[in-house]
Amino acid sequence: MGLKGFVEGGIASIVAGCSTHPLDLIKVRMQLQGEASAPNPAIRPALAFPTSAAHPHHHVHLSPPPRVGPVSVGVRIIQQDGVKALFSGVSATILRQTLYSTTRMGLYDILKKKWTDPNTKNMPLMMKITAGLVAGGIGAAVGNPADVAMVRMQADGRLPLAQRRNYKSVVDAISQMAKNEGVTSLWRGSSLTVNRAMLVTASQLASYDEFKETILEKHWMKDGLGTHVTASFAAGFVAAVASNPVDVIKTRVMNMKVEPGMAPPYNGALDCALKTIRAEGPMALYKGFIPTISRQGPFTIVLFVTLEQVRKLLKDF
C-alpha cells in the first residue's frame, strides 16, 4: 500500500508539472527581474558602489528597470526564441517531479494513513500540516539537483548569448555543474528548497484535504470533479501565498553565477533576502506572484484531479 501512494503521486505530479511548465518558466523570469540592473550581471543594486577607476566605461544605474507583466514576458520569450522556448528545462521538470513530488506525495500518503484516527476516519489539521512539513522537507532534499538544473535552464534565455550556459538537457546541466562548480553546487540553495517545499506541501496537501472534507461534510457538493477542482484551486492559492517569498530567494540563489576568484553575489539565503529588500523593496519578495498563482492554481487542479482519477484506476491493486 505504501508503494502505491508513491506511484499515484508520481504520475499525477509529472502530468501536472509538464502541463504547467510554461507558466513556471515565466514565473522564474519574472522573479529575476530587477536583479541585475547594472551592465555587469554580477553586480546587484545593493552592492553597487562607484567603480569609475576600475571600470571607466561602466555606469551603474541604481533605479530598477520597469517591471514587465507575465503576458509580456511570455510574448517576449516566443518572439526571441520561439514557442519551444516556453518548454526550456522541461526535462529537468520531469526529473524534479519524479524525485521530489513522488517522494513528498508518497510520504504524505503514508503518514496520513498512519495518523488518521481509525474510529472517526479523520485527521486533525495540525497533523496534516506536520505530515506535509515532513514529507515536503525530505522530498526537497532528494530532488534539489533537478531543481537547480530546472531553474538554470529556465533562466538561461534571459542572459546575453555570450553568457548563456546552453545546457542540452537536465543530465548535461547536472554533469556540467558537478564538473565546473563541484558536486556541492547541486545542493546550492537546498535550505531554501527544503523550506519552500515544507511550506508548499504543508499548505497544499493539508489545505486540499481540509477543503475537500469541509465541502463533503457540509454537503455543498458531492465527491466528484467539481469538489476536486474547487478544493484544489483553494489549496493552490494558499500554497502560492505561503511560498512565494521563499521561492523568489531560492530562484536568485540557485541562478547566481559564481566567477572563479570572485566573491559570490549572495552569501546565503538571508543575505539574498536583505539585499533584495534593500535594493527593490519588501514587495520584491512577491515578484512573480501573478504567474505563481496562475501556475499554482492550474498545477494544483491538474495534480489533484489526476491523482483522484489515478486512485480510481489503481484502487484494485
List the helices and strands and how they pair.
Layout: H1 2-19, H2 21-31, H3 70-81, H4 90-115, H5 125-155, H6 170-181, H7 190-217, H8 225-255, H9 269-280, H10 289-313
Helix pairs in contact: 1-4, 1-10, 2-10, 4-5, 5-7, 7-8, 8-9, 8-10
GO molecular function: dicarboxylic acid transmembrane transporter activity
Protein name: Mitochondrial uncoupling 5-like
Keywords: Membrane, Mitochondrion, Repeat, Stress response, Transmembrane, Transmembrane helix, Transport
Report on this structure.
Keywords: Membrane, Mitochondrion, Repeat, Stress response, Transmembrane, Transmembrane helix, Transport. Belongs to the mitochondrial carrier (TC 2.A.29) family. Solcar repeats lie at residues 4-114, 123-214, 223-313. It holds the Pfam family Mito_carr. One of its GO terms (cellular component) is mitochondrial inner membrane. By secondary structure, the chain is an all-alpha fold. It is built from ten helices and no strands. The protein has helices at residues 2-19, 21-31, 70-81, 90-115, 125-155, 170-181, 190-217, 225-255, 269-280, 289-313. Helix 1 (2-19) packs antiparallel against helix 4, helix 2 (21-31) packs antiparallel against helix 10 (289-313) and helix 7 packs antiparallel against helix 8 (225-255). The longest helix is centred in the middle third of the chain and has 31 residues, at 125-155. The radius of gyration is 21 Å and the shape is globular.
